[in-house]
From TrEMBL:
The keyword Cell membrane does not apply. InterPro entries: Alkaline_phosphatase_core_sf. The chain crosses the membrane at residues 12-32, 39-56, 62-80, 116-138, 150-166. It comes from Salinicola socius. Residues 479-493 have a biased composition (Basic and acidic residues). This is Sulfatase. Coiled coil: none annotated. Residues 470-493 are annotated as: Disordered. Keywords: Membrane, Transmembrane, Transmembrane helix.
């Protein structure tokens, strides 16, 4: 046995009391810093006192193990809460976040590689196991036969009466020594239990909403968008692109001039652009929830909601465009494994990392740079489809930890299979270490967003603009304009114009862009036909590349309805509001 029952029982009791107190105070660390708000967790003396009254029976070892497991569970919850606060600006919700564990493990493997990920998880696991063993041994080192009954009863009274009365006493004396006593573990458990009940009810309400949505476009098969019947539509998500990149220092000093340059370049290419402000469903991550929110017209704020939605008959924008006669294509370079959700969405074509033919080097966390991804929109959509298309893509170059930041290739026609990016081989190979260097990530964030904007709007300028034909290597034939057919016969496309929506999927983590950033992201809408954009101006969008203020923000789940208002004339003259944007 690690600890002898005959050795210094009171020493074991004191060490166990201190250890348990420290572990049970961890739920306060994420928001209180160190030291925590309280110094004494009343749960600790109560538990130690109860154990001190029990005899040294064989079952005591299992009881001590359960107490240690309870303490480590509290520590795990506190660590998870700290992670959520830092990365997504919200507290942990065990009811829905438990489903993120497999995704978190995949993220760790993707960032560190399988050997390092396994090694790191083993080290953490062994450390927790060792901590549990030590605490279990300490809890076994004292019992009813070697601890004064009076001491045990005193600890029980202090803990039990304190738990029952501390809140009332602190109301009368919130300062001094009384303010240093609390019940963090009980508060944590109570909070999570109450929120679990609230979340369960909210999920039931959301489930009913899925099947009782009375919008015409919500029914299986969706609803057509006749105003876009002969228009190519592109919906591109730029990773981590929030309004903070435009409005907060130091990022705005780089991004604002870039938006001005892009605005002038689009105008010179004969393209019109309007920009709105959209409130995303999440902050700091979980991009797919925002994609689903935009597509479904529902607030998909958790993995559980996503699974309910994707497995329900509720339709999405993909169904709407199929009903409008569009071929629907997904270009997802971030998907590196099977993606059954893509089939559930119902795309006609799905292109993922393994099927996009990229032969260049990986770019840190990203499997390929954004410029290559946008070129594949040209290769897989424009060059292969004569009729109208709806293309959804999600880019990667501006994904945390934003390394490496590369330069644009001037001549898009040389991109081909991506081997032109070979001279960046090895760049950003240390990206995994940046997760521990917040300042380095902050320095890279602005340049990474800048690159992603150049790639997206460089595509628009090159392939949507009305540049004159015939310039060697220019590639400015104009997306949706007359071009040679796939067989070189000179057959024209049947589409007339293009509508391109460039949307940030979510803000970056608060640790990068600062506290209380909100969830607003820019939405830029570009077209070679300015008439396609006029409807957005009636709903708070403004001409140019700069988003309006917070008062004009539209919930992301309202965007599907807005598209139907503008292009299907569902509710003529009625503006989109934030009503119904909650759970």
């Amino acid at each position: 046995m690690m600890f002898s029952l005959n050795q210094a029982p009171r020493g074991y009791l004191v060490l166990a009391l201190l250890s348990l107190d420290i572990l049970l105070l961890t739920p306060e660390l994420p928001w209180a810093g160190f030291p925590p708000t309280h110094w004494v967790a009343l749960e600790a003396p109560l538990i130690i006192g109860l154990l001190a009254l029990l005899p040294p029976a064989p079952w005591r070892r299992w009881l001590a193990g359960l107490v240690a497991l309870f303490a480590l569970t509290i520590v795990f919850g506190a660590a998870g809460d700290a992670l959520m606060q830092t990365m997504q600006g919200r507290s942990l919700n065990l009811y829905v976040d438990i489903k993120l564990v497999p995704i978190l493990i995949e993220l760790i493997v993707a960032n560190l590689g399988l050997p390092l990920a396994i090694g790191g998880l083993l080290i953490v696991g062994l450390a927790l196991f060792a901590l549990g063993l030590v605490l279990t041994g300490l809890l076994q080192g004292f019992h009813a036969r070697n601890t004064p009954r009076g001491l045990a009863l005193l600890l029980i009274v202090v803990g039990g009466v304190g738990l029952a009365r501390i809140d009332t006493l602190q109301d009368d004396d919130a300062s001094g020594w009384m303010a240093k006593i609390g019940h963090p573990a009980v508060s944590f458990i109570t909070f999570e239990w109450q929120r679990a009940l609230q979340t369960r009810e909210a999920m039931a309400t959301f489930g009913r909403r899925l099947y009782q949505d009375d919008h015409a476009y919500a029914k299986p098969g969706g609803q057509s968008l006749p105003g876009l019947a002969n228009t190519d539509v592109i919906l591109g998500f730029i990773e981590s692109y929030g309004v903070a990149a435009i409005e907060r220092a130091p990022f705005k000093t780089e991004i604002q001039p870039r938006l001005e340059v892009i605005q002038n370049q689009l105008a010179a290419a004969g393209l019109s652009v309007v920009t709105g402000r959209v409130t995303a469903a999440t902050l700091g991550g979980q991009s797919w929830l925002n994609h689903a929110t935009f597509a479904s017209g529902l607030p998909i704020t958790s993995q559980l909601r996503f699974e309910l939605m994707i497995n329900s008959p509720h339709s999405t924008l993909i169904d709407d465009f199929k009903a409008s006669g569009h071929d629907t294509i997904a270009i997802m370079p971030g998907i590196t494994r099977d993606w059954p959700e893509g089939s559930l969405y119902g795309y006609d074509e799905i292109h993922t990392a393994d099927s996009m033919g990229y032969r260049g080097p990986s770019m840190g966390w990203a499997s390929m740079p954004d410029q290559f991804t946008w070129q594949r929109v040209e290769d897989y959509v424009r060059a292969r489809h004569d009729g109208p298309t709806f293309t959804e893509l999600a880019t990667l170059s501006s994904h945390a930890p934003w390394s490496p930041v590369i330069d644009m290739v001037d001549d898009w026609s040389t991109i081909a299979d991506g081997e032109i990016f070979d001279h960046w081989q090895g760049a950003g190979k240390d990206y995994a270490s940046l997760w521990h260097d917040t300042e380095a990530m902050r320095r890279n964030y602005g340049p990474a967003i800048d690159y992603s904007l150049q790639a997206a709007f460089g595509f628009a300028e090159r392939y949507l603009g009305n540049h004159e034909l015939g310039n060697e290597g220019s590639g400015n034939e104009g997306f949706g304009k007359e071009r040679l057919g796939d067989d070189g016969s000179g057959e024209d496309r049947t589409t007339e114009h293009t509508l391109m929506m460039i949307l940030g999927d979510h803000q970056a983590a608060p640790a990068i862009i600062g506290a209380s950033p909100g969830k607003d992201v820019p939405l830029h809408i570009i077209s070679d036909d300015p008439q396609l954009l006029t409807g957005f101006l009636d709903h708070g969008f403004r001409p140019g590349m700069f988003p309006p203020g917070p008062d004009a923000a539209i919930p992301m789940q309202a965007m599907r309805g807005l598209l139907h208002q503008i292009y299907a004339d569902v509710t003529p003259g009625e503006k989109v509001t934030t009503s119904g944007s909650g759970s």
